[in-house]
Amino acid sequence: MKTDRRVRDAPRNQEWFLTLLPVFPIVLLVMRLWYASRQDTQTLLLLVQTISPLGMLSAILLTTVWVLPVVVVGGRLLGTLYWISTGRSSWLVRAARRLPGWVAGLAVVVGVGTWQLRFLPTLMMLSLALAGLTVRERYPAHEELRTTFCYALPLIAAVLSYVLLWPAVVTAFAERDVATAILLTLPPVCVPLLTGPVPAASARVLTHGIAIAMAVFTPFLVGAVVMRAPILPLIALEITEEDSSKVLVGYMVASDDLMTTVLHRDGAVSFISNERLRSKVLCPDPGEVPRTWANLHGWYVEQSVISWLAPVSRRTPADSRCEGRPAAEPAPVSPSPSPSPTPAGTLGAGGH
After folding, report:
1. Of 226, 250, 268, which closes a domain?
2. How far apart are CA 209 and CA 216, in angstroms?
3. Would you say residue 169 has pLDDT above 80?
4. CA-to-CA distance for 181 and 170, rounded, in angstroms?
5. Where is the composition biased (Pro residues) (predicted)?
């Protein structure tokens, strides 16, 4: 009976789940190409043939790297909170215990570098709450450690957060940006509320409900971000015609000695002979229009630490060709008048 019970209680073989991990990125890549081709099969086949998978995968990974802290820190936090509140195990607790502490620490470091400034207080809240719950779980008899990590440290972090972020908070309120103001002010005061157990009757609904919501909505959110990720360089081509020239702005698919293949923003494809090309310029990524001007000493709330600290190349004036207008012709330089020849036998001024 003991042997049968151990066999029955043993965790089932779940290695099949690992085979699903590479499927999601591949599906995202195919959907991104399908979206870029405007659901045209022939255009999709052209993009698959010419686009480098490594380059496209790199662009998508850089776009979705912020998901790692959400999944790791959030999952470990919810699992630990449920265990401390009820003392019972579940699939969420087992998943949280399979995440080592160094993985959670690495996820926090990634979040500090990749999350926007307005989301860093939320990351601090999750990190300190996880640290307090971990201390409660591992050292239940140490009252001093529990007081330090669950009350003193969150209070000090909240005060420092308000002191450092005060200029951005003032700017956010002045700009009437309510969402940014809440993100900068509310999370620090919520840390002490997350470092202790919740009522056992509502613990399962609270923790497992949030975990299931994260598991359901995170793929859709990642997919929406990936659909907007750039996968081709945006260029402007000035093409000569019979007696004029026009500018074509689109995404360069391929270029060789004879022709240049361009994907228009509406999904159409053009094959342009290189003999008709007058000029070619690489256009900047349009990106998203900033929604707020709130900043912390020049660090805008929609910027991450990496984008703020990384050196940026010197910006050049906007090229008219990227706006669909031909390049301005350079002003003709009038030749400088040559000095009149001096008649033979005549000396210049001051000559003797």
Report:
1. 226
2. 11
3. yes
4. 8
5. 332-342
pLDDT band at 338 (very low <50, low <70, confident <90, very high): very low
Higher pLDDT, 177 or 4: 177
Query: What is the biggest distance separating any 2 CA atoms in the chain, rounded to whole angstroms?
Result: 130
Residue 334 corresponds to which amino acid? S
Half-sphere exposure of 59 (CA within 13 A, CB side): 19
- Which domain CATH number covers 240? 2.30.30.520
Total residues belonging to the chain: 352
Q: Provide φ and ψ at 149, rounded to 5°.
A: -85, -25
Residue-wise pLDDT tens digits, 26-60: 777 788 888 888 888 888 888 888 777 777 777 77
State which residues form the domain around 265: 233-285
Q: Give dist(CA 112, CA 249) in Å, integer.
A: 36
CB of 319 closer than 8 Å to CB of 236:
yes
- Assess whether 222 and 237 both reside in one domain: no
Residue whose entry in the numeric block shows the structure tokens 């256009």: 283
Residue that is written with structure tokens 């260029």 in the block: 235
How far apart CA 93 and CA 256 sit, in angstroms, is 56
Pull the structure tokens for residue 57: 């995968």
Contact 254, 265 (CB under 8 A): no
Token code pair at residue 154? 């969150």
What is the C-alpha to C-alpha distance for residues 98 and 329, in angstroms, rounded to an integer? 65
Same domain, 238 and 197: no
Is the Cα dihedral 232, 236, 241, 246 positive or negative? positive
- Residue 189 one-letter amino acid: V
What does pTM read for this prediction? 0.74
User: Per the structure block, which two tokens stand in for 43?
Assistant: 């255009």
What end-to-end distance do the CA atoms of the chain give, in Å? 129
Distance CA 301, CA 204 (A): 35
Six-digit token string for 191: 């840390």
